[in-house]
Amino acid sequence: MIKVGDTLPSATLQEYSEVEGEGCSIGPNPVDVSKATAGKTIALFALPGAFTPTCSAKHVPGYVQHYEDFKAAGVDEIWCVSVNDAFVMGAWARDQKTGTKVRMLADGSADFAKATGLTLDLTGRGMGLRSNRYSMLVKDGKVATLNVEAPGKFEVSNAETLLAQARG
Question: DSSP of 136-168, one letter per residue?
């Protein structure tokens, strides 16, 4: 499992864009994790699935609500990563009204989740291999803090915990 001090794994996530701009076409666009984190501070949180109850009611809204606080604490971007396809993440972004505050990034084949060692097997619940629920502060591609939830919990990966760590 990835730990504090490790570099994020090389992976490509997908982001759904509804408007063209800065080299991004409408629809899914690749996001090279190594390039996208270089020289930046990223508040990254991951969760088991888009539109799931805890994720929709608490996890994403907390990060949207605290966007300005994260910016004031020196965070360049907030990323939400989930094992879903880019179309689902795009629809969820619209539903959650994330706008430009939270980048909703798809890890469709769970490659990023597997590479970090932060997977959650929900096959018994009909959801297959997913990402564990966690948050991390990433500085220039390296993990500065890591908060991994126990199964079924939502206690340490919330926006408030990661914000306190960002303020350090």
Answer: EEEETTEEEEEEEPPTT--SSSSHHHHHHHHH-
| Residue 138: alpha-carbon gap to chain centroid | 11
- C-alpha angle 82/153/124, rounded to 5°? 65
CATH of domain 12-167: 3.40.30.10
Q: What is the DSSP string of 49-83?
A: -TT-HHIIIIIHHHHHHTHHHHHHTT--EEEEEES
State which of 10-24, 30-44, 111-125 shows the largest mean pLDDT. Answer: 30-44
For residue 94, what is the enclosing H or E element?
helix 86-96
85 — alpha (psi -120 to 50), left (phi > 0) or beta?
beta
Range in 9-13, 50-54, 104-108 with the lowest mean pLDDT: 50-54
> Going by C-beta distance under 8 Å and a sequence separation of 6 or more, which residues neighbour residue 39?
140
The residues with which 24 forms a beta bridge, in sequence order, are 21
Tell me which residues are annotated as active site.
55
pLDDT in tens, 88-106: 999 999 999 999 999 999 9
Q: If you average pLDDT over residues 108-136, what whole number do you get?
A: 90
Instruction: Please list, in sequence order, all residues whose beta carbon lies within 8 angstroms of the beta carbon of residue 71, skipping any fewer than 6 positions away.
Output: none
DSSP state of 41: E
